[in-house]
Amino acid sequence: MTVGQTAERTVEHLGRYDVVVVGAGAGGLCVAIEAAEGGARVLVIDKLPDVGGMLHIANGEFSGAGSRRQAAHGIEDTPESHFADVMRLSHGKADEDLVWRTVRAQGETVDWLESLGFDFDPATPGLVHGHEVYSVPRTYWGVDLGRSLLRLLRARLEEVVRTGAVRLLLGTRVGSAVVSDGRVVGVTGTRADGAEVVAHGDAVVLATGGYDANPEVRNRFLPPGCEDALIACLDHATGDGLTLAAGLGADVSGDGYFIPVMGLIPDPGRPGFAVDYREAFVEVAPAYRTPHEIWVNRDGERFVAEDTTSPEHRERALLRQPGIAMHVIWDRAVAETAEPLIRNGTGDWTRERMLAECDGGRWIVAADTLQELAERLGVDADGLAETVRRYNESVRDGTDPDHGRAVMPMPIEAPPFYGLTSVAASLLSRDGLRVNGDLAVLDRAGTPIPGLYAVGEVLGNNVFAGDNYVGGMSVTPAMTLGRGLGATLARAGRDAG
Q1: Is 218 left (phi over 0), alpha (psi -120 to 50) or beta?
Q2: Using H for helix, E for strand and C for coil, what is the string for 21-78?
Q3: Beta carbons of 467 and 93 less than 8 angstroms apart
Q4: In whole angstroms, what is the distance from residue 323 CA to residue 320 CA?
Q5: Could you report the per-residue pLDDT of 415-425, keeping only the tens digit for each?
Q6: Is 437 helix (H, G, I), strand (E, B) or coil?
Q7: Chain mean position to CA 271
């Protein structure tokens, strides 16, 4: 180790590498692993004390067509069909070139994970009803959701760290790029103790994830009226890589797309943030739970059929409501009859726990009358009373003239009445860095910035999903394109040598 002295400070020089990867989430880990296995010497920098990024809380759903696992289940599928589905679900607004570059190889990514012993959930491949569904089952997840992916990638990383091919530097936040003769040749960073470091590399890969935990940055990209969206990602997603590249003149998209995550609960202890969905969320998909409640806006009015099978339909309906908020309304009879409204990934929200939450929990409002409930929720009392009256009438008549709801198991009329507020949330960054097909970061003139590449959520989810959510089109492109980029950079290093 060498130490360079300047007039202002001491900087630790980390040496020169073939590839410097900034960010140790799914994309960054795949770049590093593949580059190392291709013979490159790699440095991985991450500001967190552990690798994995959002995999610690993500569902970790990934998609791929033509996999061995599909064939074993008798499912016929092709990358061409996958591509057509992505473009259909994204309303033609995804980047066709980047989508094709990833989906043509995503089946191979699934097979790669299987060859490494990935612990697939037995239900996979399956159809995921939290998003608009694919035409065939081509989505996979682990028995422990995103943590299943993390365990596998961590094990692969540890192997290449042991061989000396990869150096892992955690607890270090990237600062700026090192530029020489117009080429990015390294990065600076700051350790948790304030010490400054600099690393040089033939290539720098930004895999720093999104910006949704930084309201100032996030709200610049949200369309008007969506600034109240809850933050649902981990705190580290502050847009560091985006800021670094933008400072070099990188082009950043500004599509103005936003489609919310529904069912998240405002955290009373952290204004603007959602309760961690690993702990609790409201189940809004009728494929997973029969709805007994109604959803109303601040005027006390229903705004969508609560049993709609289209996630996009209910998500866009929520965006049209004041404060992009909704209030779920039910009564004691529903609480004692329905499956638990609140859920999490571990399935430990029993009816008993749900009733205890109704009686004295953190998020549910209880009242003996609808008027009192409305006042406590901040909802128009007359509007709510009329809405409940009309809904109960619809239950008795068996038809919903207002929104066409077909599933109406029981009226809402037995006090106490309950209400739970949910606000549209942002989880994935929609916009990001512009790149070409080689994942080289482009400047505002459309020219590659020499030495600088990007992969994963720092590209923004719009390039792979347009103005919608598309199953598995976040983590899978990060892994697939990350593996390809790592192999390419290793090959370039060998050729140069």
Answers
A1: alpha
A2: EECCCHHHHHHHHHHHHCCCCEEEECCCCCCCHHHHCCCCCEECCCCHHHHHCCCCCC
A3: yes
A4: 9
A5: 999 999 999 99
A6: coil
A7: 20
